[in-house]
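in:
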């Protein structure tokens, strides 16, 4: 019982800390520092921090990415999503795709129309690749997306806490 209560309260506390402390200037400064870190060491620390944070924080308590960031859609995503919804690709395109300021095809609506009230995803098994890979903090993705992490830390509590833990690790070693 204690474990259940702890598991429910702790992730919400991480989300509250993120809301009160996320600051893009601070995270930009941190990610600039990380660029000069040894890549192998950084990958190990990032992986460890990613595992830790996601064992403490459930995306189902958050869903902020689905509420605020329209995912990029590639050809396969559109094909898979249209099929899973029983729509023709053209119909899906008309209903759910727009071109953003960078010229990418993205989900037209924000919050995402497939986000359910309980924060589950209606098209989870067919979700876009961008949704599967977000927030790009595990494996080689962490070092490849350093500039993105500062921006994402204002959208995603997990990114914020992963960066905090990496900073703490690097300053204590
Ligand atoms: S990936 Fe980040 S922003 Fe998205 S639901 Fe999980 S914690 Fe929230
Ligand atoms: S497709 Fe699913 S995972 Fe992706 S933004 Fe929409 S609700 Fe979130």
């Amino acid at each position: 019982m204690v474990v259940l209560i702890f598991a429910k309260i702790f992730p919400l506390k991480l989300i509250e800390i993120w809301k009160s402390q996320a600051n893009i200037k601070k995270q930009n400064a941190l990610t600039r520092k990380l660029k000069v870190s040894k890549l192998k060491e950084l990958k190990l620390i990032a992986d460890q921090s990613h595992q830790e944070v996601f064992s403490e924080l459930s995306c189902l308590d958050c869903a902020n990415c689905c509420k605020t960031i329209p995912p990029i859609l590639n050809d396969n995503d559109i094909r898979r999503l249209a099929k899973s919804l029983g729509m023709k690709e053209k119909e899906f395109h008309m209903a759910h795709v727009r071109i953003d300021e960078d010229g990418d095809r993205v989900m037209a609506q924000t919050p995402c129309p497939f986000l359910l009230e309980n924060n589950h995803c209606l098209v989870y098994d067919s979700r876009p690749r961008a949704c599967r890979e977000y927030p790009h903090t595990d494996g080689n993705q962490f070092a490849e997306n350093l500039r993105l992490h500062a921006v994402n830390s204002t959208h995603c509590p997990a990114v914020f806490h992963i960066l905090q833990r990496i900073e703490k690790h690097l300053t204590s070693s």
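note: Residues 66, 71, 112, 114-115, 121, 123, 127-128, 131 surround iron/sulfur cluster (ligand 2) (CB under 6 Å).
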